[in-house]
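Hello forum,

I keep getting stuck at the same step: I have a sequence, I want structure tokens, and every attempt I make locally crashes halfway through. Rather than fight my setup again tonight, could one of you with a working pipeline run this one for me? It's a single chain of 179 residues.
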Amino acid sequence: MGHTHDDSHAYRFCPRCGGPLERRLLKTTEPERPVCARCGFVFYLDPKIAVGTIIRLSSDRLVLVRRAIEPGYGKWVFPSGYVDRGEPLAAAALREAREECGLEVRLEGLVNIYSYPGEVPVIVVYAATAVGGTLAIDDESLETAEFEAGVLPWENLAFRSTSDALRDYLAGVRHPVQL
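Reply #2:
Ran it on my machine without issues. Output:
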């Protein structure tokens, strides 16, 4: 029996040689894995890593963006996105903040790392302070806005990780960040 996040049944052919994939139990403590019947390649389906930045403006307001893409179209999130292969997490967080809301930020600490049963992404969330740039939108956003902590749009947040991270941030959760 596979894990709840195991969607390996959706893959039928080896990404290396094109041979057929078959499910095999490689270790008794792990789920069955797709293995190429021709070349023996084990096709691991790893989680996807995303980063987010909860950005504080000098006015002690937080920046949120309203999504123009699914999932979560029309709902609010802090600037976030996927980490590119080989990209350091902190660099990805700085890049996503600049791309999604136009701000240059200084990372102040790690809020936390979030993962949930049945969900593919692992979300690494940083606390940040805006140090430059101009609040703007990109093609993945409908709008950006500044919110005071007491008036965050809790009922219109896109993801569980968004609300969990904002609650941790407001509770003062910070871990040192290595750049």
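The helical segments are 89-101, 160-170. If your local run keeps crashing, start a new thread with the error log.
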